[in-house]
Design a protein that fits this description.
11 helices
Length: 277
């Protein structure tokens, strides 16, 4: 497995907007640079619209010690559009995604980048994630996904097959599928499906490589009438592009919309006891 960054250069891509927490952003940035056993050649930070002074200060301070490339957008455009803008500025074909409030584990890049460079037929590699509250020592659940491509493709017809916060992909494969596209709350899932349909090959490492920050609001955001409607629109879109059958569309709408409309405390239990291991 390659760990020499000069032999396996890659970019890290993340987007920041004004509502982010400066302390959490600082922790996230440190986790992808100071703590990593294999460091990125560049870190592309998209400022999705004007940021607070505190957020700008965190980014400025980090830029003094890390290879940061800033992409500043005049107005907030949303995650999908911001990531597309940032992707265009990524110099390397291998791109690792990172969110502004999560924590990458120290060997994340060593294992994922090494896997991709050693597996030329794979276009995207993700991993399991540990969901935590307060501190990384308080893990409440782990999201594991199918390992091999055939299993991932089958799983994708029901649920999102990739943990977006810990994904690493080939830029060429993402662009071939049309890049991130606007689809509220589901920009990532929509991209993975289009990549699968364009022939991209996926793999999920069966190890947790990232701490994902979760709380009651995390599960609350996954519910509600609006989220259910957006989910229905996504299933209809999947049917129109030929990814799922009519029967699969109806099955998914009934199942997924029901979960969205659960009271929040029931949805929390459902995610922890049924959808997580």
């Amino acid at each position: 497995m390659k760990t020499n960054i000069s032999d396996s250069p890659f970019s890290v891509l993340l987007s920041v907007y004004f509502k982010e927490n400066p302390l959490l952003l600082k922790q996230a940035l440190e986790s992808i640079w100071l703590a990593q056993t294999a460091k990125p050649a560049e870190i592309v930070i998209v400022k999705d619209g004007p940021l607070t002074d505190e957020l700008n200060q965190v980014i400025d301070d980090f830029s003094k010690t890390a290879p940061v490339k800033i992409v500043a957008l005049e107005k907030n455009q949303g995650l999908g559009a911001a990531l597309n803008k940032g992707l265009a500025h990524c110099q390397y074909d291998i791109v690792a995604r990172m969110d502004s409030d999560d924590v990458s584990k120290p060997t994340r890049f060593e294992k994922q980048i090494g896997f991709l460079y050693g597996s030329p037929d794979i276009d995207l590699v993700s991993a399991s994630i540990d969901e935590f509250t307060e501190t990384t020592g308080h893990i409440i659940s782990t999201r594991r996904l199918p390992e091999f491509h055939s299993e991932i493709e089958k799983f994708a017809k029901k649920r999102c097959p990739v943990n977006h916060p810990v994904v690493v992909f080939k830029k060429t494969a993402v662009l071939k599928a049309g890049g991130y596209q606007h689809f509220p709350l589901f920009e990532d899932y929509f991209l993975w499906v289009r990549m699968l349909m364009s022939g991209a090959k996926f793999y999920n490492l069966q190890e947790s490589l990232l701490y994902f920050r979760a709380n009651a609001d995390t599960f609350k955001r996954r519910g509600g009438f609006k989220h259910a409607i957006d989910d229905i629109k996504l299933q209809i879109k999947f049917r129109k592009i030929g990814f799922i059958t009519f029967y699969e569309m109806i099955r998914n709408i009934v199942y997924r919309a029901t979960v969205r409309l659960f009271p929040n405390f029931i949805r929390v239990l459902f995610y922890k006891k049924i959808l997580r291991k």
